[in-house]
Amino acid sequence: MTQTAPRRSMLTRFLDGVERTGNALPDPVTLFALMIVMVIIASVIAAAAGVAVPHPGTGDVVEAKSLLAADQIQRLLVEMPKTFTSFAPLGYVLLVMLGVGVAEKTGFLTVALRSLVSGVSPRLITAALVFAGIMSSLAADAGYVVLIPLGAAIFMGAGRHPVAGLAAGFAGVAGGFSSNLILTPLDPLLAGITQEAARLVAADYVVEVTANYYLMLGLVPLFVIVGTWVTDRIVEPRLPKWVPTETPIPAVDGDVSAVERRGIQAALLSVVVLAAGVAALAWAPGFPLRGEDGSFLPLMRSLVSLMFIAFLVAGIAYGVTTRVIASDKDVVRMMADAMSDLGVYIVLAFIAAHFIAMFSWSNLGIISAVVGADTLRSIGFEGSPLLVSLILLAATINILVGSASAKWAFLAPIFVPMLMLLGLSPEATQAAYRIGDSSTNMITPLLPYFPLILIVGKRYDPNFGIGTLVATMLPFAIAFGVASTAFFVGWLALGLPLGPGISSTF
Q1: CB within 8 A of 384, min separation 6: which ones?
Q2: Residue 99 Cα distances to 179, 184, 256, 358, 412, angstroms
Q3: Helix, strand or coil for residue 52?
Q4: pLDDT of residue 105
Q5: pLDDT > 90: what percent of the chain?
Q6: Are 175 and 442 in contact, with CB atoms under 8 Å apart?
Q7: What global pTM score does this model have?
Q8: How far is Cα 119 from Cα 116, in angstroms, rounded to an integer?
Q9: For the residues 203-227, what does the mean pLDDT come to?
């Protein structure tokens, strides 16, 4: 008798459709190339139609320019190297990752995550896992590769269901991706893209790396509380009582050796010494990291460089102490390996830089911003409701396009200028995007680490599939999205700064 295949649930069929649709999309680089073609066509049509608007700042008439005009073609070819190398996020990311690469290749960041959750009281283990996941955005891929399987193993060792530990770690890593106690490589990356977009309206506008720091800092305890509550009250109770399987489960070492502990101590000591040096350089007006007027603006604008130095120094201190680094050649090799890991990003940065530049040259950016702002103003749609709509849009797009920088590179030139004309600062628009982008990370099958997490889940449940994982993580996605959006709206209502000296209004 022929066995019929088990009936697939509606959720599983829906997710399969999402996966097929997402996999059918071109690579992000190809998407940007297609959008460049669309911008060229739109510029030709708009220029031929004589489309023009008054500039909101100067009042001058801004006319659409055809990108196929002789001067525009010449500009594209002559300025191509400059367009690429002057793309603000590129320099920021390359510089920070030179330091992060050493800290990661020596094993410092991975061991730091392990030490954070090892030896924690069983009553606090869920909160510790979520918190460690949030902080793991400092360590690039380490959170997905190390923390999620470690969380499952720790829960199993405590007699709790390992899938609940997997879920808590995954929620922190993916859902808390945009929040941290410390600035991460994502901050300069998004700030650079936002700055490029803001200059469509204000030519000299500067977006600081700390643009959203206060808000993202405030989200950390919120995500820890929400993630812990969802794990303990919703996710774990619906799981069956954990009964160890007969099949041995691969061990995940959560202990930190004596050598690794000494390495961490050396790394932390080096960072403390560096922090003391930075404090000395910013001690009084006129010092290198303090303005003549007493402001800390030079310090704020040096944070990318200081992040690079901090990661580099900590990585070297850890590597030398643990003997992973034997000579200067090892440090150079690790920095080179970090750069090679960024090959795909560099290609993406090249095409994204030209998309943003050509969008600006055609004047379609400012024209669409003015027209869009006028339309929204005429229907009275502005302020917090507009930012909440952007959060929902970013959360939805994130299901099909995973890269945070890729999505922001094509959303920023439209939304940042438009919302500036409606009185919202570029920093507020960026914050709204970050909240929406992170909330659905844990339920998209297109996340690069989704297959890895499925494999970890199958260690404990042979039937663990896409539907199981999404059903497990959906309460986290909803709770994180609702809580962070409400938190953001309340933050704006109270008029609190998004970062040092950063207002939500333009």
Answers
A1: 489, 492, 493
A2: 20, 12, 23, 32, 28
A3: strand
A4: 85
A5: 27
A6: yes
A7: 0.67
A8: 8
A9: 92
